[in-house]
Automatic annotation (TrEMBL):
<dbReference type="GO" id="GO:0120147">
    <property type="term" value="F:formylglycine-generating oxidase activity"/>
</dbReference>
<dbReference type="GO" id="GO:0004197">
    <property type="term" value="F:cysteine-type endopeptidase activity"/>
</dbReference>
<protein>
    <submittedName>
        <fullName>Peptidase C14</fullName>
    </submittedName>
</protein>
<dbReference type="InterPro" id="IPR011600">
    <property type="entry name" value="Pept_C14_caspase"/>
</dbReference>
<dbReference type="InterPro" id="IPR005532">
    <property type="entry name" value="SUMF_dom"/>
</dbReference>
<dbReference type="InterPro" id="IPR016187">
    <property type="entry name" value="CTDL_fold"/>
</dbReference>
<dbReference type="InterPro" id="IPR029030">
    <property type="entry name" value="Caspase-like_dom_sf"/>
</dbReference>
<dbReference type="GO" id="GO:0006508">
    <property type="term" value="P:proteolysis"/>
</dbReference>
<dbReference type="InterPro" id="IPR051043">
    <property type="entry name" value="Sulfatase_Mod_Factor_Kinase"/>
</dbReference>
<dbReference type="Pfam" id="PF03781">
    <property type="entry name" value="FGE-sulfatase"/>
</dbReference>
<feature type="domain" description="Sulfatase-modifying factor enzyme-like">
    <location>
        <begin position="368"/>
        <end position="594"/>
    </location>
</feature>
<feature type="domain" description="Peptidase C14 caspase">
    <location>
        <begin position="4"/>
        <end position="233"/>
    </location>
</feature>
<dbReference type="Pfam" id="PF00656">
    <property type="entry name" value="Peptidase_C14"/>
</dbReference>
<dbReference type="InterPro" id="IPR042095">
    <property type="entry name" value="SUMF_sf"/>
</dbReference>
Length: 599
């Protein structure tokens, strides 16, 4: 999976310069956008009162900022396909033909000793190793004088030379205005609009077009003056790079492909590989043209080094850390999703679709794996959810990369095809396998991996809850409650205002009830499902990257999720978690598997 990191700096209070009103808020909003909307997993934030980081002050003075650039960018820690963004909102100044950012202790009468040259910033950023470095500068704020040229010209030339995408809030002869009515700078307002749902500017080119229209419009409306942002993206194909993959169109991806083909034709294999990796990322790892192109480039590179030797074998399902569904192209299936009110009455029905691939297990048995998009969610139960337990606290944000998950819990037919036995009490090929202990579920994943050539495993607890919720925040993915028309559980004990229902006292065939909006069935009830994690009593110190929590006071206690046919309704909630000994063999415990989409 691509690594996405950023630095966001916003300075209102200066020791030697006039204060600004909204620079800090601009940076805070950018931090929130990158973390919540753009999927950035690590953002270093510096403002007037930002909290310490790792025990170190984040006050944006010269010493602290230089220390970050010197330590963090000492050696490469990213690679092709990764992204590093730098956002600065505050004062900037031009001195002796050089552009500078002014930290909070920057002194205009001693610029060389107290300010930070922007070319130093760009040079250090390039050291991170990412091929996509974005420099966003809202740093041309008025210093109380209208003499001389503002920053931008020298920085633009440096950007061209180093291949850094640079986005400037205004032209060198202009100022970057703060808008009181917006409580923001005009530039940052337009920038966040353009990158977000309003503009959906997935590429550098489209963002440039949006900013050139929107920023002048805002400034004319509120200030009756001029402000003209501009973007430097060289070589020219940098303008086609996809900044926000979630808004990328097929046309955006096709343009990027053309650039990649041209780079190959020019024998610029490094650039071609970078572009193909970006195509693959934009397509969630599922573009076979890009997959084959990366393999082709690896082969060409190897052949150029050893022309007399036969080509080395190319690993078909692992390119630069990206696990790929290639031999089983994705298909699409349609399904109906229902929503209920607090009494369990269906209030909405809608049609959805999802992508999947089918794994052939032999003898007519297949395993359908549904594509789960990556995202961020709040794990655990919110305050106020009825019958929530302390073990579901504290609620915390988790970032989840995309993956594939079994459409159903593993069935008896599937288990038989892989393991050669069926230990279940309630027999039926389409019923979920049960009476499987945790280690047997892990062994199934191992044998399935060997059989298919793809890596399968149990889901982490975070992956399970994320997949179960499918974007919902209610106790169940159906809504505020469940009924036995929708879930197989002990209907004698309903949840909330729902009526009593049927108690079947056994499992049912998978897929009998309506799925969630990801296209996953029976995530509530039927059988408990094993997860990879060791059981912990709460979420204190739990991973926030969706990885399995493999440490705890007792490695023999593993995580169970989802509830079962024998349980009361509250145990089937999306947030409910329980533990079971790894040797637990019950006819209400099964499992489902995941395959990694991007690792």
């Amino acid at each position: 999976m691509a690594k996405n990191w950023a630095i966001a700096i916003g300075i209102n209070q200066y020791d030697y310069l006039q204060p600004l009103n909204y620079a800090k808020r601009d940076a805070l909003l950018m931090q929130e956008f990158l973390g919540k909307e753009a999927g950035f997993e690590r953002i270093f934030f510096f403002s007037d009162d930002s909290p310490p980081l790792g025990g170190k002050s984040t006050r944006p003075n010269r010493a602290n900022l230089r220390q970050v650039f010197l330590e963090l960018f000492n050696k490469p820690f990213m690679e092709a396909g990764d992204n590093f963004w730098f956002f600065f909102s505050g004062h900037g100044i031009r001195h002796a033909d050089r552009d500078y950012l002014m930290p909070c202790d920057g002194n205009p009468v001693d610029i060389e000793e107290t300010a930070i040259p922007i070319n130093f910033v760009a040079e250090r950023l390039r050291r991170c190793g990412a091929d996509n470095v974005v420099l966003i500068l809202d740093a041309c704020r008025s210093l109380g004088t209208r003499a001389g040229e503002g920053i931008g010209r020298q920085t633009a030339e440096q950007a061209r030379q180093q291949g850094v995408i640079s986005i400037f809030s205004c032209s060198p002869q202009e100022y970057s205005y703060e808008i009181e009515a917006l409580q923001q700078g005009a530039f940052t307002t337009a920038l966040l609009e353009g990158l977000g749902i309003q503009g959906k500017c997935a590429t550098v080119e489209r963002l440039d077009q949006y900013l050139k229209f929107r920023v002048p419009e805002l400034v004319r409306q509120h200030k009756n003056t001029n402000q003209t942002p501009y973007v430097i993206a060289e070589p020219v194909d940098k303008s086609h790079l996809i900044l926000v993959p979630r808004y990328a169109t097929q046309t955006d991806i096709a343009t990027l492909k053309n650039d990649a083909y041209q780079a190959e034709a020019d024998r610029n294999l490094d650039l071609a590989e970078q572009l193909w990796i970006r195509v693959l990322a934009a397509a969630s790892g599922q573009d076979t043209v890009a997959i084959k192109a990366i393999q082709r480039i690896e082969r060409l590179r190897w052949e150029s080094q050893q022309p007399s030797s036969p080509p080395r074998p190319i690993i078909e399902n692992s390119i630069k850390g990206i696990s790929i569904v290639e031999k089983n192209p994705l298909k699409t299936f349609q399904f109906e999703v229902v929503t209920v009110n607090a009494k369990g009455d269906i209030t909405n029905r809608r049609n959805e679709e999802a992508k999947y691939f089918a794994e052939d297990l032999g003898n007519g048995v297949t395993l359908e794996m549904v594509q789960i998009p990556g995202g961020t969610f709040m794990m655990g139960s919110p305050e106020g959810e009825a019958e929530r337990l302390e073990r579901e606290n504290p609620q915390h944000q988790v970032k989840v990369p995309g993956f594939f998950m079994g459409k159903y819990a593993v069935t008896q037919a599937q288990y038989q095809a892989v393991m050669g036995i069926n230990p279940s009490n309630f027999k039926g090929e389409k019923r979920p396998v049960e009476q499987v202990i945790w280690d047997e579920a892990v062994e199934f994943c191992k044998k399935l991996s060997q059989k298919t050539g793809r890596t399968y495993r149990l889901p982490s607890e975070a992956e399970w809850e994320y997949a179960c919720r499918a974007g919902t925040k209610t106790p169940f993915y159906f809504g505020e409650t469940i009924t036995t028309d929708l879930v197989n559980y002990n209907g004698d004990y309903p949840y909330g205002s729902a009526p009593k229902g049927e108690y079947r006292e056994q499992t049912t065939d998978v897929g009998k009830f309506a799925p969630n909006s990801f296209g996953l069935y029976d995530m509530h009830g039927n059988v408990w499902e094993w997860c990879e994690d060791v059981y912990n009593d709460n979420y204190i110190d739990a991973p926030k990257d969706s990885s399995a929590w493999l440490t705890g006071k007792d490695n023999d206690i593993k995580l169970l999720r989802g509830g079962s046919w024998i349980n009361v309704a509250r145990y089937c909630r999306s947030a409910y978690r329980d533990g079971g000994t790894r040797a637990n063999r019950d006819d209400n415990v099964g499992f489902r598997v995941v395959a990694v989409a991007v690792a």
